């Protein structure tokens, strides 16, 4: 009995001892205030506050046309918007246009229909590392690990044009992962996938958070929305609800 009590106390102490570390890990990563996107006269959304914590996963839901993809593309620097203030990793990012280099390195957007170069799977995954000046031997090792992670090692030399939709999505995730993004923006990663292909993509997403990224996933997929530990954001009538 005393052993049980002792182990319970120990467990509680261990948990408390871990608490500051956990809090430390969940610091604010991205904080945006006053984010407005217009298409001509149409105000697509007007977001007061968007906050993303480190090492956290979010789903972004909303009706078709609510602006989910647009919001991810704005955060990824692929579209312009009006932004009153933006903090990233504790720093004020004053000049959002042009999109700051630090954000470009730290935030990676993965398109619903990834565009892959007509080279090989391995070259596609390593491309960003080559651009960032990694030595070929390092690129090879990182790409090999990423292909194993994504379950595409057997496709290393394949022309991406010959891949299925699920394989393409996994290659795109591996290509993003090797860049070790602080924030990963996934646009409907499981749309148009079913069966094993969908399950394989679903299984990769939590491991990206484990590896240190925060992830925001625009989706309608119930299984993604219900993944344990995932926080919910919803675009509704041009406003963002944190749920
Ligand atoms: N360049 C543009 N000019 C005008 N309107 C645009 C432009 N790009 C997107 N839109 C409109 O903005 C709205 C939001 O589009 P977006 O793709 O962000 O929505 P979504 O929530 O991702 O939708 P879905 O769930 O269908 O993918 C849509 O009504 C779309 O037609």
UniProtKB/TrEMBL annotation:
Database matches in Pfam families: ABC_tran (PF00005)
UniProt keywords, alphabetically: ATP-binding, Cell membrane, Membrane, Nucleotide-binding, Transport
Source domain of life: Bacteria
Keyword Lipid biosynthesis assigned: no
GO molecular function, one term: ATP binding
Domain (ABC transporter) ranges: 30-243
Statement: the UniProt record of this protein carries the keyword Transport: yes
PANTHER family, alphabetized: SPERMIDINE/PUTRESCINE IMPORT ATP-BINDING PROTEIN POTA, SPERMIDINE_PUTRESCINE IMPORT ATP-BINDING PROTEIN POTA
Protein name (record): Energy-coupling factor ABC transporter ATP-binding protein
Protein's organism: Massilia pinisoli
